[in-house]
Amino acid sequence: MPKKKTSKTEDEGPKVKKIYTIKLTQEQLEHLGEQLDSAPAGKWAHYDVAYSQFAFKGDGVNVVGYQSGKLVVQGKKTEDFVRDVLEAEITGEARLGYDDVHNPEWFTLHAGCDESGKGDLFGPLVVACVVADEGMVRDWIEAGVCDSKKITDNTILKLDKVIRQTKGVVIATAFARMTKYNHLYKKFGSNLNKLLAWYHGRGLNEALDKRPAPWGLLDQFTKLPLVDAYVADRKDFKLVSRTKAESDPVVAAASIIARAMYVREMKRLSDELQPILGEPLMKGASAKVLEQAKKIVAVKGAGELAGYAKMHFKTAYEAQGLEPPKKPAWSKF
User: Fold this and answer.
1) Could you give the residue range(s) of every CATH 3.30.420.10 domain in the chain?
2) Rounded CA gap, 120 and 175, in Å?
3) Domain 104-263 maps to which CATH number in 3.30.1240.10, 3.90.1150.10, 3.30.420.10, 1.10.760.10?
4) Which of 64, 99, 198, 237 has the fewest Cβ atoms within 10 angstroms?
5) According to the model, what pLDDT value does residue 156 have?
């Protein structure tokens, strides 16, 4: 007979963080890499990671420094490494566990908006808006909610369930399946940013109608204030747009909700195409994705590709043997 699961008690304490990401200067990365490399034999082992300056495996923790300057620490001893090595000897700044001090705005009532699928040939563009308050944010941080680009699809689906089951959370999403998406893209003058702004406007207004919030944070996708126009009538609401907004847990929650919907829709499309492709649809717009698109065109015809792909992508034109059009002037914005 299986053991009955015991409920979590306060004695168990907060969940231990098992992944930590931070942007370091080149000098800090080099200092850390040299320190780990010169440690006593057997303490750290080198291993290969694409686009990394260094990667080490240690006792209960892996440390990878990327060419971009990003450092990723992962494993059951992540917190020990961050506090005892990274903060104590490299950055000289205590941030782990001090979110209230460094980011007090995270814990105020606000909306967070993000999207998924924008850079993928196959599958929909999904927008999500989440409205949350302090208690929800603390629970999500403990559960491991973070930018969806940093976690696997399986983890995304698990966290999506955690977020959706949070008492009092407000979630609004907007997306269209592929044939409708391609129609909308043309309706908005073949301007992806205008279409995306409309999606965000719909999601944001739907969420704020359910629970008003004084401000919201949008992961910036254009230099123009396109989304602001959709909330201009909300005099007691301020929309803030900035890049890397997913560091905010509410925006991170929105990114997870959006990505989970995208993952589920990709599963549906992949199942439909299984007899043709014999494998799941690939994300992104790589050479492998082009190969899959060409196979769909060869078997089902060029007209059917629109049911699976964003037809304005260069890859979609190439799959049909067509010359991609020049980028429009608005694309730089």
Assistant:
1) 104-263
2) 14
3) 3.30.420.10
4) 99
5) 93
Beta strands in 141-237 (DSSP E): 170-175, 215-219
Tokens 């566990």 map to which residue?
97
The amino acid at 210: K
Half-sphere exposure of 36 (CA within 13 A, CB side): 26
Element (H, E) at 232: none
Position of tokens 């750290």?
A: 44
- pLDDT over 60 (residue 288): yes
C-alpha angle 18-19-24 in degrees, rounded to nearest 5: 145
Cα separation, 247 vs 70, in Å, equals: 14
What the block records as the tokens of 152 is 């696997």
Give the contacts of 129 (CB within 8 A, at least 6 positions apart).
Answer: 111, 112, 113, 171, 172, 173, 200, 203, 204, 206, 207, 216, 254
Residue 61 pLDDT level (bands cut at 50, 70, 90) = very high
Q: Which amino acid is at 79?
A: E
Neighbours of 170 (CB within 10 A): 19
**Average pLDDT over the chain, rounded to whole?**
89
Q: Which residues, including other chains, have CB under 8 Å from residue 20's CB and lie 6 or more apart? A: 72, 73, 74, 78, 79, 82, 96
Residue 103 to residue 101: CA distance in whole angstroms = 6
Kindly state which CATH superfamily the domain 10-97 is placed in. Answer: TATA-Binding Protein (3.30.310.10)
| Tokens (6 digits) for 252 | 């991170």
**CB-based burial, 109-126: b 16+ in 10 Å, e otherwise:** bbbbbbbbbeebbbbbbb
Q: Average pLDDT in the 289-311 region?
A: 96
pLDDT in the model for residue 327: 72
Closest CA to 112 of 152, 156, 163, 158: 163
- Asked if residue 173 lies in contact with residue 124, where contact means CB atoms within 8 angstroms, the answer is no
Q: What is the pTM of this model?
A: 0.74
